[in-house]
Design brief:
This protein has 15 helices and 20 strands. By secondary structure, the protein is an alpha/beta fold. Helix 12 links the parallel strand 15 and strand 16. The longest helix has 22 residues. The structure holds ligand BES and zinc ion (2 copies).
Amino acid sequence: MFFKIQRNPKGSIAYLVDATDQLNQVQLEKQELEYVLQEFKKDNHLVSINKYSHHIYLLKVNSPADWKNDEQVRKQGAQLCKLLNEKKEVAINLDNLSGHKKAAYLLAEGMALANYQFLKYKTDQKKLKHSLNDIFFNNQSLTVKELRELETIIQAVYKSRDLINEPLHYLNAEQLSREIQDIGKEGGFRVQVLGKAKIEQMKMGGILAVNAGSILPPTFNILEHRPQKFINKAPIVLVGKGIVYDTGGLSLKPTPASMDRMKSDMSGAAVVTGIMYAVAMLDLPLHVIGLIPAAENRPGENAYVPGDVISMYDGTTVEVLNTDAEGRLVLADALHYAKKYKPELVMDFATLTGAAANALGDVAICAMGTAKENTKEQLKTSGYRQFEKLVEMPLWDEYGLMIKSDIADLKNIGGPVGGAITAGKFLEHFTDYPWMHFDIAGVSYHVSGKDYRPVGGVAMGVRMAVDFLMHYVK
Ligand code: BES
Ligand code: ZN
Ligand code: ZN
C-alpha cells in the first residue's frame, strides 16, 4: 500500500464531507446531487457515482472530531476499501472537503488496515491480491508529517500481523529472532539474540521450564532504540510474550477448538516488534528497549509436569500446577531482566489468559499495573484515540493471596475465578518499577474478520502504544 501527496489525474476520487453544502464543490449533475442527498438522508453515507472514465465516491463523515466519530471514519475507510477492490480500482484520490481536519488520515488508515492480506501460503496470489494499491491525497487533506506517520504505523501493523499469522512450522523461536533482526535492520533498531546456552547460563528457569518439552531451542531477544538525544531519564521497556506455539504442554489444551489459534500466542512479541519498528522509523527521541522471551510450550519427552517446582531467573520458586499457564513464567524472567535498566516504565503485552478474553471479548485490552495514575490516564486516552481501548483491572492484595503455594513461594495458577488478575499479580511479583500489563488474549486474533481487522492477526496494541509514545515526547 502506497500513500502519496499528489493528484492522480486518471484515478477515481473520494470526497469527504460533513455538511451537504460542501457537495457544491464537487462536479455533479443536478440529478446526481439529488441522488446523493437522498442516499445521505437514508443514512447511506458512502455513495458512488459512475462517471464512465472513473468513479466519484461521496462520503459523509461524522464531526466533530472525537474518538467515536473518528472510529466511524476508519470504518468507512474499510467499507470504501472493500468497494474499491470489488470494482478492481488500483488507486484512489482523497479530497477532504469536511471541517474534520484529520478525516482523510483516518479514512486512509481504515482503508490500509482493511486492505491487509496474508497470501504467503496461497498458490494463486496474483488472482487473490487486492487491486487497491495507492492512496493519493491533495495537500489540503494531509501534511507530509502525517503521511510519514501513517506510512510507518501501517507498516508496523502489517509486520506485526505477518508474524502473528505465520504458523509454527515456519516461525519457531529462532526464526522469530531472525525476523526481529530483519525488521530491526529495516526499521533501524538494534537486536541482540541470546541463545539456549546463554539462557541456561543465566538460569532463566521460567523460559527453560516452558521450553523443556520442545526439541527446538528458546531465544531471548533484546531490541533497542537509543537515539543520540532522548528525553526520558531512564529507558522505557516493552516486554512481549513470545510463545511460538501453546499446546498447553502436559496440561494439554483440548483440540481442536482451543488449539486452533495458538500459533498466535506470540502476539505480544509481534506487537512489541511492531512498536519498536515504528519508534525507530519515526526516530522518536526516546530510549526504548524491547525484551522478547521466545519459547514453545509442548508436551515432549522432557516436558515440565504439574507439581514441578521451578526456580525462576530472580530466584523465586514456583509450583507449576498447570503447564498451560506458561506465559507468566517466560514473562517473569523478562520482567526480572528489565530491572537492570532501572526503567522509568515497563509495559508488557501478552496473550495471557482466557479469562481476559471472557471478560472483555474482542472489544478491549485488559490492562492493569503499578504505573502512576497520570501514565494510566495517558494510556487510556491513547487507547480511545486509536480505538484500541483499555479496561483497567485492580491489583488488590486479595488476588495475590490466591497464588500463594503450600510448598513454594508462588504457584502459577490462582483459583477458578479472577484469572486475568491472578496472572497479573504473578507478574507484579517480578517487578520493582512502574509497570503496566496488557492482556491481549481476547483481541489479538480474529477468527472471522470485522471492519478493518481482517481474519487472523490483528496486532491490537501497536497503534495505542505508538500513540502513547508519540505523546510522551510532547
Ligand atoms: N495462551 C493462553 C491464553 C489464551 C487463551 C490466549 C485464549 C488466547 C486465547 C495461556 O497460555 C493459557 O493457556 N492460559 C490459561 C491459564 C490457566 C491455565 C490458569 C487460561 O487462560 O486458560
Ligand atoms: Zn497456555
Ligand atoms: Zn499461552
